Amino acid sequence: MRRRWGLGSFLCVVMAAKAAMAQTAGGDVSATADEQPNPTPAQEISYGAMPGGLHVATAETLPKGVVQVSTLSGFGYRKGLLGADHRFGRVIGDLAAAYAPTDLLTIGLSLDGRYDRHYGLAPSGDDGYVGDPHLNIRFAKPFGTVRAGLQVGVWVPGKNAPSVAASAISVDARVLVSLPAGPGMLSFDAGFRLDNSAKSVDDATKLSLPDRVSLGVSNYNAVFGGAHLMIPAGNVWVGVEGSLDKFIGSAPAGSAELAEGSLTLRGALDVGLHINEQWSALAFLELAKVPGVLNAQVMTSSIPLIPYEPIFTAGLGLQARFGGAKRTPSLFAEKDCHKHVPPDCVDVKVPVLADITGSVVDSNDKPVVGAKVSVTLKNSTVAPVATDDKGVYVFKGVPIGTSVDNKPTIEETGIEVAVDLSNMKPGKATVAAVQQGSNAVPPIKLEPLLPPGQLRAVVRGLPAGKAVVGATVTITPGDAKAETGADGTFSLDLPPGTYKATVKAPGYAPQELDVTIDPNGVAIKNIDLHK
Question: Whole-model pTM above 0.90?
Fold first, then answer.
């Protein structure tokens, strides 16, 4: 089988990891005593040492200053591709390193290797290996609870080791979106691959059929996409994904064409474990539906050049993280400060809530509908409510204190409930000993608002009996005030009741008198001031 270069790519991965770790050690990611870095959450790392699944990338980047190194290995199997007796096994391996120069950007380099062994088709036992280097650059940013990003990948296939075929350089670009989904995260990606990889093959007609199956190059561009769901459970995560590659375009002249609508469909499951802050491991299983080969194409040795994949692949992976800020298990391990997990976590204050309910009635004890009811609190504000058709009001979840380690502290020692309604006198009640849970307020009775009356008076100064201009009149209770005019008179509209009027003027002694106001009545007074 034809061998493609891989040693140079392997060295590039190792050197990139060492350089990135050196930069981490000497860069600005270390924290001083006065400026501690934000803890970085645990992430699901699969292909290419980047966050995401086996084929679907998530809109996540590595934390700033982090170097991630990962490896995946496994075995795949397929039969019946080139004939009823044909079968092949594939051993796969991926070595990758990624580095995050900023929180928004991650750069990764991976070497994808595979070894195929074919049976049941001459020459029997045909085998060989292929190594492919890939460079991925990912930018992602949060927008509220949703993350979005873009990833660009470059594949540089070669001919014979250690060469590089510049004309065969292939590029793909994909859009990434990740959003919360219950306790986990749901991610989508979609993109396009400009595939020139077949140009690394000088003469495809000289390749054996097993070589064409195993080479992994393509005469077609592709659109691709997928969805991935990651669900954390303590230090374990479970990932489920589906992905597809749709091959588009036409094969070069003299090459076999794909059947209409040919595409690759995949479904995968991976289960991972965060062993500690640095190391994690995973196991994966993938099923794929890949375009087949026609008997006529096998007979003429002209099968289309596309990446033929096993229908079943399973394997294991190991990842390591270096540098960056200290990671906490807060995303994947439940944080319970009441149990001191982690031991240095800050006490969590839980709000203590109360429900306040009562009713509003009129002077005949009939329900008052649509009255505005409000509560006055010392530490917070609660929106007013209105009484229903039975005169009842309810305040749900009123914050009255906080609880730490299941020890509640009531901070609202007394709550005042006030009621307002047009044409009725305001009413109020006080809850002196509010408690967590339900609190019942005695019924609040509203009295009708009586028609207003009026006070009219003239102020004169003795002994001359002349009108006093600018005298100040104050009415209590209340804050009604008036000032006499040029003729010494004033008038005030007042609710029915008994008041005390106080009159003051420069050069005169203050004068007080009792005033009674009747509904729709007018009280007339003559007020004499003495020197």
Answer: no
